[in-house]
Write a structure and sequence with these properties.
Blueprint (H helix, E strand, L loop, with lengths): L1 H10 L2 E2 L6 E2 L5 H12 L20 H5 L6 E7 L5 H10 L3 H13 L1 H5 L5 E4 L4 H7 L3 H6 L9 E2 L4 E3 L11 H9 L2 E3 L3 H5 L3 E9 L3 H12 L4 E9 L6
Parallel strand pairs: 3-9, 4-5, 4-8, 8-9
Antiparallel strand pairs: 1-2, 6-7
Bound molecules: zinc ion (2 copies).
């Protein structure tokens, strides 16, 4: 059926999710180039949390002082345009094609990360039941399931559940936020036997303070996970948060 997709590609062009011009692919060549340039301007980053570091460092001061529960973070771009807008389209206007766009960019720019990934299980950061009901889908899962991953990795969308918290997150400082999030994640029934001794890969869309990934990783490690990595579409450096 290759001829069919080739024909429809020209009959029904997509809009590039970034520049919104008609294109055969969800992200056009010019926009891919622009994103490549943005990525090339990112300096050295911490081997653990991916925040910017000075050239002589390999790990940032914060991680050196207190290691987070996760072992490594990889991201696509800083939380900036031109990609911030398509993420909003995906999350708030349910433009699901943008999930394919982010997966495509990850598959292009993170070929090596994908090929060498030795995780056993992939999980998306879960949404609270309320948010999931309102949105109708978990945007992170929609992206993650389109990654060109090694076949050996098990993709499990509901290994962890996100409980409703009664504490509003806004207005809390980092420590308070982490503490309140700690009770937020719980393994689904039977989850512990799946993760014991395994390398778990968490997928997220925007990582800012890192407290969500930290508390999710802490829950996983307390239940026996050997290693926890995180891939996030965007990393927000502290000066932009
Ligand atoms: Zn474009
Ligand atoms: Zn760090």
């Amino acid at each position: 059926m290759r001829w069919f997709s080739t024909v429809t590609q020209y009959l029904l062009p997509l809009l590039c999710m970034v520049c919104e011009n008609p294109q055969a692919k969800i992200v056009c060549h010019a926009c891919r180039k622009r994103i490549a340039i943005n990525r090339s301007q990112i300096g050295p980053s911490c081997a653990v949390c991916a925040l910017p570091i000075k050239p002589h460092q390999s790990i940032c001061t914060q991680c050196e002082e207190e290691r987070p529960a996760f072992d490594r973070v990889v991201y696509l771009d800083l939380y900036q345009e031109p990609l911030r807008h398509p993420l909003h389209l995906l999350k708030y206007q349910k433009r699901l094609a943008c999930a394919s766009g982010f997966a495509l960019l990850w598959n292009i720019f993170h070929q090596h990360t994908l090929k060498t990934c030795d995780a056993d299980v992939l999980i998306p950061v879960p949404l609270s039941p309320k948010k999931l009901a309102a949105r109708g889908f978990n945007q992170v899962w929609e992206i993650a399931k389109q990654f060109d991953l090694p076949k050996s990795i098990r993709l499990i969308p509901n290994l962890v559940i996100c409980q409703e918290t009664h504490t509003a997150q806004a207005g809390l400082n980092r420590a308070e936020r982490t503490a309140s999030m700690h009770e937020r994640f719980a393994l689904n029934g039977g989850g512990a036997s799946v993760i014991r001794g395994q390398h778990i890969l968490i997928i997220d869309d925007v990582m800012t303070t890192g407290s969500t990934i930290h508390s999710l990783a802490a829950t996983l490690k307390q239940s026996g996970a050997k290693q926890v990595s995180a891939w996030t579409i965007f990393r927000t450096p502290p000066w932009k948060s």
